[in-house]
Write a structure and sequence with these properties.
Length: about 200
């Protein structure tokens, strides 16, 4: 039986189609009965929700922008997008790849591996960014390191498979290695603040 189909005072069943404001059994006003208690309960629930949101925002702030070192790390996460605009494999860069596909100058089959590599750079970099937003959590550092090491390893393996690494590939690799170093430095700083 649905609780909403019971009178809050007498507890007797009321039809789901009953539209009057007073209980047909005890004549209590259904809308205003125990209004203060319901408002107090709503206030408690609203406070819990606000506290949960504030806690979540605190985690995000403490993990990403609470210090200059964390801000530098956050900015570093977006730099592979710029380095991919330089030649990554031979003379293939993100810009030349996109323009060649748009202008039908190259076939997708000819550049499938560089395309996969660059797509993985973007996807795995997003995973690293999202993971880093929760660095202050209990397993944050471990998660950051796992995502960054996987990202770097996949990038290196694809670079070896594709071959012809250009300046953009080397710069992206250096960025990934710097990200790992930044995770370690940021973890030390976060732990020092926690102590």
């Amino acid at each position: 039986m649905n609780k909403n189909n019971l009178c809050p005072k007498c507890g007797k069943k009321i039809s789901a189609f009953y539209m009057k404001e007073k209980c047909p059994h005890c004549n209590v006003n259904l809308m205003y009965y125990n209004m203060e208690e319901r408002l107090a309960a709503d206030e408690v629930n609203a406070k819990k929700e606000v506290d949960a949101v504030n806690h979540f925002l605190g985690i995000l702030k403490s993990s990403s922008v609470a210090s200059p070192l964390l801000i530098v790390r956050l900015v570093l996460f977006f730099t592979p997008l710029a380095s991919m605009c330089l030649p990554m494999y031979g003379d293939v860069s993100l810009i030349s790849l996109i323009m060649g596909l748009i202008n039908s100058e190259i076939q997708i089959g000819d550049v499938i591996m560089p395309l996969v590599s660059m797509a993985l750079v973007v996807v795995l970099s997003l995973a690293v960014i999202i993971s880093s937003l929760f660095s202050v959590t209990k397993t944050g550092f471990l998660r950051n390191m796992i995502f960054s090491v996987i990202n770097t390893a996949v990038f290196i393996v694809l670079g070896l498979i594709i071959g012809g690494a250009g300046i953009g590939w080397y710069i992206t690799l250096v960025i990934y290695l710097l990200e790992i170093v930044m995770h370690i430095l940021c973890e030390r700083q976060i732990r020092q603040k926690a102590d």
